[in-house]
Design goal:
Elements lengths: L1 E7 L4 H15 L3 E3 L2 H9 L5 E7 H4 L12 E5 L5 H13 L4 E4 L1 H5 L10 E4 L5 H11 L5 E3 L2 E2 L17 H4 E7 L1 E2 L10 H5 L4 E2 L2 H13 L4 E5 L7 H17 L5 E6 L7 H9 L2 E9 L3 H6 L10 H9 L4 E8 L8 H11 L6 E4 L7 H8 L6 H4 L2 H5 L14 H15 L2 H14 L10 H13 L8 H14 L4 H38 L17 E2 L2
Helix pairs in contact: 9-10, 10-11, 14-18, 18-22, 19-21, 20-22, 21-22
This protein binds iron/sulfur cluster.
The site of iron/sulfur cluster (SF4) has 11 residues, from helix 8.
Length: about 550
Amino acid sequence: MTRILLISAGTNFEVCDWIERHAKNLTHQTAYVVPLHLATIAGLTPKEGFEVQIWDELVQGPAEVNLDAGYDLVGITGYSDHLSRALKVGRKFHEAGIPVVFGGAGITAKPDAAEGIADAVFLGEAEPTWPEFLKDFEAGTVKPVYQTDLKVNLAQSPPPDWDSIAPLMAAGYKSGAVETSRGCPFDCEFCDVWIKFGRKMRTKPVARVMEEIAAFERLGMKRVMFATDNFIGAPKYAKQVLRAVIDLNAGFEHPVSFTTELTLTLARDPELMELIARANFSTVFIGLESTNLDSLIETRKRQNVRGDMVEECRRVSSYGMSVVGSMIVGFDNDTPAIFDQQFTFLQEALIPIPRLNVLKALDGTDLVDRMRREGRLIDTRRTYTEEEIDDRVVRSNVMFKGMTRVEAHAGYLGLMERVWDWANFSDRIIGFIDNVSNMPERRTDPRLVAVVDALQANMHAFPHADEAIIGKILSHAKAKVPALAWNVAAMTMLQCYQAAQLPQARKTIERQIRVEERLEASGGYVMAPEAPRSTVPPVLETT
Ligand code: SF4
């Protein structure tokens, strides 16, 4: 029997500690979403001859406690943010003489990072390569790299195996996760999704999606995230899934609530909005990116320039779904005026919890190629100190066109401070509540209503929480949209989190501004050399 430990690396334990101390007090759960990537690998592992244990550091703590637990093989995964922690953990197991392999987006972006630690690295989708690796492992013929450009048919991918963490599920995680599709028909310049996964949507059969949702419901999960980069990239398929979810939810004692990522095209399809609301979606994540039309065209976010974005966001949220809008500043067409424009937009579009980003050119995107060609891609390793990079002081690797890097980061800090100001948050979320006019009748899970009571009882525990404003928001939600009060409370908790993080974030960005001032004065930026243009891998179906 080969015993395998699959580790999802944490980021850093300061973050975990913060969640432990504050968020867990309120919801009694440590992590937002279950480790679908590891359960997928567990599902790909034959039952005979192998025993798999999943270890999610965010919920279970440092993985080093398993060093002497007799595992024969350790697999570690994580996004770029987790890479330094993943390497640290990997080194410990490697030094203990246990074979270590790495996979996931973090190592795929920097395959050389695990040199000297990893027995093998996995690049690309794991379905075709993990079974091949296991055979090689048993035969003692492991190759250093397992890579594929194959685009897996999701109908043939085995279901995720949650067995090893099932006992932790309801207590450890706020949300289950079901992968519905891969790929995206759009081709935004800054995004690697369409390059990695293809522009042709690959979808999981509706019946399989329902089985996986039902499995989470049996495990006591109240919420499920559809893990996809664009749930409505294939609208007909999305409607089939939603109709099935409505039927499935009707049979549950308590309805499961859903969330997913999709595009603003939702606002132009009334049938889809109606279905998604009836299917009990509480939140939708939408890449809005910019209020500047020229910037949207520049970055090929064409689907966002067809209508009035404020009106479209309001239309979506009128169905009782909060829009988590992701915004980016620093496109070539952005000037320092963008910060005021984005703030005004977020207030008017009633986006209670936005994501704010400074443009960053990610490996494997068209943007990174263009920045290289134009001599505007900063070689961060040669420009900044290791400490500045590890402390995540450096947010962007682009020389902006319409503003200096000092202006960009100072403007970003000002935007953050205004967005996470309690009075401004209150205006957005009260506006969201008042805007709900098309919400279909909903059953509410009474267990979720407990979130409201937990927030009311514990808000004093959050540093920088404004108790008067929180009280006003919750009373308003209970009076106007009782079925959504738990979601309003959940968003208010996120605002508590943002407000509590703000002093530290301010210090970090102020530190970056000082670094950028020094670099601008000394001309100390080192640009990355021009490299051959990366090509889009062919989309090869497995059927
Ligand atoms: S719509 Fe979203 S997922 Fe699709 S290419 Fe653009 S940013 Fe990427």
